[in-house]
Structure formats: C-alpha cells, structure tokens
Amino acid sequence: MNPFMAFVALLVLAYMGGLLSDTRIGRNLGLASGVEYVMLGVIVGPHALGFFQFETVLVFEPLLLLAVGWLAAVLGLQYGRYGGERVPLVLLLWGIAIALACGAGVFCAVYRLARLFHWADQRACVLLGLGAAAVCSGSAHQAVRWATGGQSEERSVSRVLGCLGSADDLPPMVLVACLGFWAPRAPEAFDGGTLFPLMGVGLGLVLGATVAALLGGRLERSEFWPVLLGAVFLMVGLALRLGVPLLAPAFVLGLVVSILSPHRQVIRELVIETERPLLVPSLLLAGVLVDIPKSRGEWILVGAAVGVRVVVQFLAGFLLAAVMRPLRGQGRHLGQAMLATGGGSLVIALAVYFGQPGHVGRTVLFVAVVATLLGELWGGRALRRISAREQAGPVSEGREVVS
C-alpha cells in the first residue's frame, strides 16, 4: 500500500476512534485497551496480508511520535483524577506502590534472564529490563471506565480500581525517563552530561507552566487548542532534537497544566475526546511493527515479564483485601481485575520501539502486546463482572473503602 492510501486508511480509523470515544457505542464495538487494532495491524502487516510494510510505517514515524507525545500529555492531565474527582491520598499511594513493586519485579526477572542467556551486553539488558518494567507496571483507569460506562458508584469496588489505575501512571514514566541514562547517544545529539536526561523533565515543567499562564483566567477555545498543541509539539521536537526520552517530558507538561491552570476540569473534558481518535491508528501501526520472537530465550523473557506482572497484581489484590475490611474475600477478583491495561502500555512500548530501535524495542513491544491481550481476556472479564454486579443492586462489598 502506498503512503497516500495508507494515510487515508488511518484517517478513516481515526474517525472510527472518535465514534468509539462515545462510551455506549465503544463498549459494544471495542475493547478498553484497543488491542484489537494491534491485532488488525498484525493481520494487515508484513507477517500476514502484507498491505502495510515496515517502510510504510517509517514514513509515518514523525506523526506517530507527535501522537505519542500528545497521548502522554493527556495522561499527565488526567493523572491522579478519576471520575472528575481527585484520587484519595491512600489510594494514590497504594497505586504508586503496586506499580513500583510490579516494575521492580519485572526488571529484576528480565535483567537476570537476559544476562543468564547472554542475550546482549549489560547496557542492552538494562534497557530491556527498564522497557519491560515500564509497559508492565501500570494498570488503567481507562479499562475501568470502559467496563463501567463511566458510572462508578461512590466508594464502590470499581471506583477503587479506577483510582488505583489513575495513580499508577507515574512509575512507568519514571522508568521511561531512566532509559535516557543508559541509552547510547547519537553522535549528533546534544551532550549535556550525566544528568542530561533530566533536562527533558525540566522542559516539561517550564512549558507546562507557560501553557497555564498563557491560558490565563478566562479560557477561550479558539486560543486553547493552538497553545496546548503548540506546547506539546514543541516539547516533542525538543526532546527528539536533544535526544532525551519523549514520554516523561510530555507527561510532566500535562501534569503541570493540570495543577496550575484554574480550567483544569474543562481542559480534561476537552482533551479526553482526542484520546481514542489518536490511539486507534497508532495502535494499528504498532501492530504492523510487531515481530514475533524467534528464539526460545526471547519467549522465556516475554513469559517471565508477563508472569511477574500476574503474580504481583494478584498479591496486591489479596493484600488490599486483607488490609481494607470492606474488600475482604475479594482478593482473587481484585487481582484479576488489576491485570487489565489501557492503551497507555502500548503507547509506552511504541515510544520505546522508536527510541531504542532494534532488538530491545521489538521485544518490549511484544511484551506490551502480550500483557495487554492477557489483561483484556482475563482482567477485562473480571471488571465487567464487577461492574454488572454493582449495577444489578446495592453494593455491599467495597463501600466505605475510603472516607
């Protein structure tokens, strides 16, 4: 398929993604993470029908990176919020702790196995461990919103899961930022010393504060989109030019705008409508890039990463059920539900793929696809069951989880 026809097909998919942003329609036609579009990309990609080739995707790399940067900024704008309200501090800390435990476990398992199999040198093993940890350490409030139709009762089990998912986006972004300390730098990249990757976070802080100041006390939609789009695109361009990881600065930009702007709620409502239209074509192209592992060692690495995620999430579910009295007896259901992921993990994997081309990027992308698919088939089922039980009648379990 030539690039022009591919671009038209992507525009059609983006329009379909806009339709799926409607909760009622989307729940009937799609999945929470959008992994079905990754599978579609695999089918139309070079490994199956061959409509899309790797070279075609590379033509769209600049657009893909802009989309990834925008989606990271949207995650930052929504961080720590669920259902339009701030996540309670206790659940915010729980979400961060679970994500850190999952990321640490995945990193240790993948790094040790990569060294054991003499898969690559130490630097490549660290990059692989960090990338796999980043895509496996988050769950997703989007999955909860998808399963419940955005209608979670106050202090219900689904709301607790949504709050946990809204809190665990921060550790993956920290892990992605750490890639900059280990990744080899291009000869033309700016050399700013050992702590140079932190400059991207500083740029995100500065641009986020600038956007909040430019929007001022009165929000005009005609001014809002050029200001925010311009800031995100400038952030993406600077990150690529300077050679720093892309996602963390864009996430910080969105987070700072969310904190400083008095129009934070209106901004969230506006930008969340752009999430699905951008996510759908991005995931299709991600599916085209998926490369199935060719050795037993690679399969073991993928299985270890996904297996550690499953174990940690189930342990976290049982621990939550043990310390929170209203959740007693629901540890297995909580752990299963927390396996669900959103498109965030796939977006992170896509950024790693382009930031670390080669074996590291391909393996991390495949880990993300497997973890997301497992989360949809196993965790999504638990979420829908919890939602159906809550909507069928009064919720006895899960009430008064937080005050």
Structure description:
The chain is mostly helical and 403 residues long. It has a single domain (3-392), classed as Na+/H+ antiporter like fold (Up-down Bundle). The chain has 19 helices and two strands. The chain has helices at 3-20, 23-29, 35-44, 54-59, 61-78, 89-116, 122-136, 141-148, 157-167, 170-182, 198-215, 221-242, 247-260, 264-271, 275-289, 296-323, 331-337, 343-355, 359-392; strands spanning 81-82, 85-86. A two-stranded antiparallel ribbon has the order 1-2. A hairpin with a 2-residue loop joins strand 1 (81-82) and strand 2. The termini are far apart. Residues 22-29 and 395-403 have low confidence and may be disordered.
Summary tags:
single chain, 403 residues, mainly alpha, Na+/H+ antiporter like fold, two-stranded antiparallel sheet, 1% strand, globular, disordered C terminus
Question: Could you give a quick summary of the protein structure above?
Answer:
This protein has 403 residues and is mainly α. It is 73% helix and 1% strand. It has helices at residues 3-20, 23-29, 35-44, 54-59, 61-78, 89-116, 122-136, 141-148, 157-167, 170-182, 198-215, 221-242, 247-260, 264-271, 275-289, 296-323, 331-337, 343-355, 359-392; strands at 81-82, 85-86.
Based on CA atoms alone, the radius of gyration comes out at 20 Å
* Strand count: 2
> What is the CATH domain class?
Mainly Alpha
Number of domains: 1
Strand proportion, as a percent range, falls in: under 5%
The CATH topology corresponds to Na+/H+ antiporter like fold
Kindly name the structural category.
Answer: mainly alpha
CATH architectural type: Up-down Bundle
What is the makeup of the main sheet?
2 strands, antiparallel
Q: How would you describe the shape?
A: globular
Helical stretch tally = 19
Sheet with most strands: strand arrangement: 1-2
H/E order of the elements?
A: HHHHHEEHHHHHHHHHHHHHH
User: Which range best describes the helical content: under 10%, 10-25%, 25-40%, 40-55%, 55-70% or over 70%?
Assistant: over 70%
Ranges where pLDDT stays below 50 over 5 or more residues in a row are: 22-29, 395-403
Between the first and last Cα atoms, what is the distance in angstroms? 56 Å
Average pLDDT for all residues? 81
